[in-house]
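Human: I wish I could look at a protein chain and see how it folds. This is the protein in question:
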Amino acid sequence: MKQLVLDIRPDAPPTLENFVAGANAELVATVSLLATPATAAQLPTRHLYLWGGAGSGRSHLLRAAATMARAAGRPAHLLAAADIDDSLPETADALLAIDDVDELGPEAQVALFNAFNRARINGQSLLLSGPAAPLALRLREDLRTRIGQSLIFEVQALDDASRAAILATLAERRGLRLADEVVDFLLRHGRRELSSLLAVLDALDVASLEHKRPITLPLLREMIQRGLEI
């Protein structure tokens, strides 16, 4: 758990360093290789598809990869699939990151298929994300086939032990004592996305200071009654 002593505030800019890898260490390493021009050629294919449920960190990884690519001097385009029409950037040697490919419209699906076809010529790498494995995507068959030929990783969700350890680590860094029953309650009844858990920790920190009370289950219940969403 030594990797958990990171700056992972909910408002921290997404980076590969503040992505809590858990069981995704190989995935994070591959994204890093793909983002950097000097190392992308080491991969068996220059295209990568990430899939996982809501809150798994797919969008975080795409944003982090685009930032890393630009820092390394590589052009990068980060696009939401729902915003794409009938064309995609043809910037030479660029990283083209597209989030939520399942939301591509008919013309956008053609545009992505064409991007795959010209990627070898213009040196682009495609970094794509979606909610399911390629075969389960509701896309054109030829596009699903192209996506399926990419490197494919399922983004593994953090387990409860990792979530609890992260909360405990961050609370300790703030000089807070986070009762075990508070953590158990949040993991049992709250939203399980790390960003949501960290937002609740921020709210508990503020309430503890304002009311000069320790962070206990009664304090958390009072805050929920006052409108805190967990």
Q: What stands out?
A: Residues 1-8 have pLDDT under 50 and may be disordered. The longest strand covers residues 125-130. Residues 194-211 form the longest helix (18 residues).
